[in-house]
Design a protein that fits this description.
8 helices, single chain, alpha/beta, two-stranded antiparallel ribbon
């Protein structure tokens, strides 16, 4: 029988992520959309459609995508992050949905529901032992031809972003990938 690590259990619980936000341990919070996303969408936007933003936090990337014509749903485990995201969207008058969901069941819960997935830091924030499971979940949410950075995709464009937040320069890579039939 496989052993389940304590981290495996904790990172799947909303309480874990709520505590991360309460402690200010969310090092991914930029207070604005990721500069690499802005540059990428402004210069060579992926096809419009329904986009999922897993681990959306305060919803900055989700709101940005919505203002650029995408139908966006942001997902997070942490109620406080979702409340902040909804509050900011209302204040800015941006039409975007935010849902509390388990990132590992998105593919089962929302099969083939999205044309694209934007993941900036959710993949790297979760327990590395669950990353393959996470990718499979995201693959399940995508329609054929949908776009995401992950296995089971072919890369259409890739390269370093022109703009990255301070401290992340030369550490980021933007990729537009399309789901294959695999």
């Amino acid at each position: 029988m496989a052993r389940v690590s304590p981290t495996f259990v904790r990172t799947s619980a909303p309480e874990f992520w709520e505590d991360v936000y309460a402690r200010g341990g969310d090092g991914w919070e930029l207070g604005a959309p990721a500069p690499s996303l802005v540059e990428f969408v402004d210069s060579t936007p992926p096809p419009r459609g329904r986009v999922a933003v897993p681990g959306c936090g305060g919803g900055h990337d989700a709101r940005y995508l919505a203002t650029r014509g995408y139908a966006v749903t942001g997902f997070d485990w942490a109620p406080a992050a979702l409340s902040a995201a909804r509050r900011l969207a209302r204040r800015e008058g941006v039409d975007v949905a935010f849902e509390s969901r388990d990132m590992f069941t998105l593919g089962r819960d929302l099969p083939n529901a999205f044309d694209g997935v934007w993941d900036y830091t959710c993949f790297c924030a979760i327990d590395p032992a669950r990353r393959a499971e996470y990718v499979r979940s995201l693959v399940g949410t995508l329609r054929l031809g949908g776009w995401l950075l992950a296995p089971s995709f072919w890369i259409e464009r890739a390269g370093p972003p022109l703009r990255s937040p301070r401290g992340r320069q030369s550490r980021e890579w933007m990729v537009l990938a399309r789901r294959t039939g695999a």
